[in-house]
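Hey team,

Filing this mostly as a record. A colleague (T.K.) asked me to run one chain through the structure pipeline before their review meeting, and I want the input and output archived in the tracker in case anyone asks later how it was produced. No errors, nothing strange. Just documentation.

Input sequence:
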Amino acid sequence: MQALVFVIAAPLMSFGEIAVDERRGTAPRPTRSAIIGLIAAAFGCDRADPQQQVLSAGYDVAVRVDQPGRLLADYHTVQVPPASAVRRSGRRPATRAEELKVGDLGTKVTRRDYLTDAAFTVLMVARPSAPTPLAAIGAALERPRWRLSAGRRACPLGLPPAPRLIEASTIAEALAAYDMAENAAGEACAGRRHAAPEPARQMLRRQLGIGCDRQAAVVADIGLQANLGFDVTRQEMRRDLAADRTRWQFARRIELVGRLGDREQT
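Output structure:
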């Protein structure tokens, strides 16, 4: 199995869930749509680009929780037209200028949730329908056309993704091999003449605990069931598979949940 492994770490992250009125929550780990959106940004594809749907259908994904982070609630006040004005016009204003023309704007409080100081390691495996080789995705993550963000655009990455192609038979082995490669690269850099005692990236990896927890929680697409390397404790249904980006519609998918190091002896 060939896998592309990289890191998503940032001071602030937000991965959209089902939004109800003024509440905008965040999922506890990267959604599939956020990961595909990150890759699309690396290639320079906007939300309306049909290539996003092709990317979404071409890969299986697994995520290791290195640092779950803490929940932060951010409150905003926004002015919106009253429901009566929307009913009279038959549609919601499409622009801010149209909202201001309504005149009698009401004020309400909205809440947006974020994860602070979280870190995740992402693994991708190409399906037969994959439109782009994993090596090309890795190259795009190293030199992205657009700024990479952890969910919302206001959440830029705090650590380079550091993508690597890994050959392994299971997800658990691929993640372990990635950690070993990153640690070896850091040690080699630190051993060079005039180099800092500890490269900044390796120091941040250590502080965030990336690759340090051998019992870390991990989730995987059901398409990776034959290559897990850990025991599944439960299945979760998530609505994060982008169905129509223009209408913000998302479909359900099944995710396998377990912990690294949990493997029954047979």
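Quick notes for T.K.: The CA atoms of residues 225 and 248 lie 29 Å apart. Residues 171-190 form the longest helix (20 residues).
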